[in-house]
C-alpha cells in the first residue's frame, strides 16, 4: 500500500470488479481509455480489466479520508532491460478537476524513477482528451509523435 497527501494506492481485490465495470461503462471515461468503439461491452470490459491487472504495477486509488475508490493507475514494462515504462490512469468522472490525477502522476513518476529505477516513462493519450494532455504537458511530458 502506498500513500500520498490525500490518496491511498493499494492492490486490486476481486471485490473491486464492480467499481471497474461501472467505470468502464461510463462513456466519458472509456472514450479516453480504449481505442475501440466506446459502447457497453461487459465481456470486453472484463477482458480489459484482466489485462490491466497483469501490468507490472496496477493500483486502485482511494480517497484516504473516505476510503472511497476513485480510480486506478498502472505501469506496464514490456522490456525491463530498456527501463522504459508506459503509464495509464483513470478516475471516476465525479472526481475530475480535484487535483487527484496530478497527485497520482507525481507519485507514479517518483516511484518509477526512484524505486523501480526506470529511465523513461511514456504514455498514449487521445488529442481530444484536453484535460489529460494539459496535465501530462504540465508534468513534463513531451509530444513525441502522433498517430493518425
From TrEMBL:
InterPro entries named among the record's database cross-references: Acyl_CoA_acyltransferase (IPR016181), GNAT_dom (IPR000182), N-acetyltransferase (IPR051531)
Highest rank taxon of the organism: Eukaryota
Gene3D superfamilies named in the record: 3.40.630.30
GO MF, one annotated term: acyltransferase activity, transferring groups other than amino-acyl groups
Pfam families: Acetyltransf_3
N-acetyltransferase domain ranges (all copies): 7-148
Full protein name: N-acetyltransferase domain-containing protein
Native organism: Hypholoma sublateritium (strain FD-334 SS-4)
Amino acid at each position: 500500500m502506498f500513500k500520498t497527501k490525500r490518496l491511498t494506492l493499494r492492490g486490486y481485490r476481486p471485490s473491486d470488479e464492480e467499481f471497474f465495470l461501472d467505470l468502464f461503462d461510463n462513456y466519458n471515461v472509456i472514450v479516453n481509455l480504449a481505442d475501440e468503439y466506446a459502447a457497453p461491452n461487459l465481456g470486453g470490459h472484463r477482458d480489459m480489466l484482466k489485462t490491466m491487472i497483469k501490468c507490472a504495477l496496477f493500483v486502485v486509488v482511494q480517497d484516504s479520508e473516505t476510503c472511497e475508490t476513485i480510480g486506478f493507475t498502472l505501469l506496464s514494462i514490456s522490456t525491463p532491460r530498456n527501463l522504459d515504462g508506459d503509464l495509464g490512469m483513470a478516475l471516476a468522472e465525479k472526481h475530475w478537476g480535484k487535483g487527484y490525477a496530478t497527485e497520482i502522476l507525481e507519485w507514479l513518476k517518483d516511484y518509477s524513477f526512484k524505486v523501480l529505477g526506470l529511465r523513461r516513462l511514456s504514455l498514449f493519450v487521445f488529442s481530444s482528451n484536453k484535460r489529460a494532455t494539459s496535465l501530462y504537458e504540465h508534468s513534463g511530458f513531451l509530444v513525441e509523435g502522433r498517430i493518425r
